[in-house]
Amino acid sequence: MSTETERAEALTEEQMKELEERYDPEVRFRPLLPALGWLTATALFVLSCYHFYTAGYGIPQATTHRGTHLAFTLGLVFLSFVAFGQRKEPHNTVLTPLGLPLYDWILAILGIVSALYVPWVFNDLAFRVGNPLPIDVTMGTILIVVLLEATRRAMGWPLPVIALLFIAYAYFGQSMPGVLIHPGASWTNIVNHLYLTSQGIYGTALGVISTYVFHFVLFGVLATRIGLGQLFIDLASALAGRFAGGPAKVSVISSAMLGSISGSSIANTVTTGSLTIPAMIRIGYPRHFAAAVEAASSTGGQITPPVMGAVAFLMIEYLGVPLTTILTAALVPAFMHFFGVLVQVHLEARRRGLRGMTKDELPVAWAVFKAGWLTTLPLFVLVSVLLSGKTPYLAAFYGILSCLLVLVIQNIVRHDLRTAITESVRETWDGFVVGAKYSLSVTVAAALVGVIIGVVTLTGVGFKIAYMVTGLAGGWAQDVSVWLSVLPFELISVTSLTLLFTLIMTAVVCVLMGCGIPTTANYLIMIAVAAPILGLLGVEPLVAHFFVFYYGVLADITPPVALAAYAAAGIADANAFKAGNTAFRLGMGKVLVPFVFVFSPSLLLVVPGFTWTEFFLATLGAMAGITVLSAAIANWLFAPLRVYERVLLALASLLLVAPDLYATIVGAVLILPALIRQLPLLGRSVRAREEMT
């Protein structure tokens, strides 16, 4: 092994932490002096304890619970994130008590007070909504301003800018052009709607974060700490490492397995990539491609049951369905995500003639499971409680409790009793602190998205945009149907064309939004706008939500802000932008899938009218479409493709996923020229490999 590879081979826990902080602004915490560090850590620990207790013994009244969570979060954001520039070493002065600037202390206090004000006056709230007191407007204004600044610090400028534009739209409604015009709202009415009602800041988004997401983030952190993530990586290596391009396939499979307990793309990238990326480079993958594989795979964690990202829990509230319904619906889309990346990885390995890992480089699956089986207990408990019909937060409570039990057992096995107790307390403290830290950015983002959703409900802009988009799509559909009328059969109806163009526009906006904001915020904004659009065209609500969700997952691999790809590039020492573009290309193989489950909803398993016949036809069509589109993108099927073959395969992929027999037949016919020319080349390639071995 070369010196260069050795240097990249082993990343310490501290190095992985530094990489995650460098590329993920959501965990880029400021250095603190010891006294303030203890204060902050204690507040984080108390926040985790509060949620752990309420998950097991009952959630308080909704507004009180949400306000308490938001107050803790806002105070901690201003203690944890700097306002501008680099994170400098703090100094204790008159202007920086305990090393924190005075303005941060002021903002933290204002955030806490304004967040707790609504729960405090809750009993009188019914008399104030619609006729707020001056103090209500003042407190609401303070919270909106503080929330904008907190989100900017934790996540950057894009989301606050979008929120400000929506607020401006609500205020200057009379000046808007065309169909977007509305009477406008006074600042008092805007604050009343966003602050005092459940349609704004204290709405569903914040409720889901404080009631569900926090607990599952904490579970994921603790499950990773007891070794469940490492077990997944070792098992993936044992199962897939020996095949062509083995480390890349290990990357895909381990990311899928780790994604089942971690909804964070960047954390997944750093954890698995620290092992898989150096191995990919060692067998011959280019550095940027190795980084791209890990990034594209890791984004799937957000759609992989049972511990999905925040969006799964948002769907529970918006759709009014059990979590088990969401998890069941997510199974096939999650499989298609990883299948799409795996196909491109395999084709790239064949194109480059890359080997698998040798027997000496691979762990033994049984030995791996025998050594780490105990770490699977929390996941088993979590899934069992979920399937029993209990609430998600109660399932998370028992999952966290199981993690703590495993942690104690592991320490008792490794140490004497006294040391075991000390280590268990220390690791529990660390896990609770880190879990709470990871929730800060998603909480302020959800609260600020509540502002955007509040403006949509206040102004009705969602339905106005819906009519605009469907009208535009309908016009395009009429034009295309004229061109298609020359065929002796109807390839696709005008209604289906209208829906297709609407979906394309929605998908493009999702991808563009993903350039600047994370998946959760992307989903919340798009569903507020896109749900009315797709609803007008008869799309089932569950299907519409999954369509937006699936495309929103591309946010972390969408240049120019492909954060997961940039983190992977840091590990691979590769060009970050090149890695981002390649990761986006690897994700392109599965872009067809959301269109499949819109036109064939049975792919989601739990929609009305489900049939096994439609499910199997849609699944096979999607897999075939992903495969041929991946071949066209990778420029390889069984051998290099000619230009016309790539074009035919790309067209075939679109037709193979269409829910129409004629379209499927035409798609299959378009594949034939490439197959006829390439099948003889496959035989020669196999014989050549056999001779080499």
Content of β-strand: under 5%
Report the biggest beta sheet as strand number plus sense, adding barrel if it closes. none
Give the topology string: H per helix, E per strand: HHHHHHHHHHHHHHHHHHHHHHHHHHHHHH
Unreliably modeled segments: 1-10
Which oligomeric state applies? single chain
Instruction: Report helical residue fraction.
Output: over 70%
How widely separated are the two ends?
22 Å
Average predicted local confidence, pLDDT? 85
| Count of helical regions | 30
Shape: globular
Radius of gyration: 26 Å
What class, by secondary structure content? mainly alpha
By DSSP, the count of extended strands is 0
Organism: Oceaniovalibus guishaninsula JLT2003
Keywords: Cell inner membrane, Cell membrane, Membrane, Transmembrane, Transmembrane helix, Transport
InterPro entries: DctM, TRAP_DctM-Dct_fused
Transmembrane segments: 35-55, 67-85, 105-122, 129-148, 154-172, 201-222, 318-343, 364-387, 393-413, 444-469, 489-512, 524-551, 557-577, 589-610, 616-638, 647-676
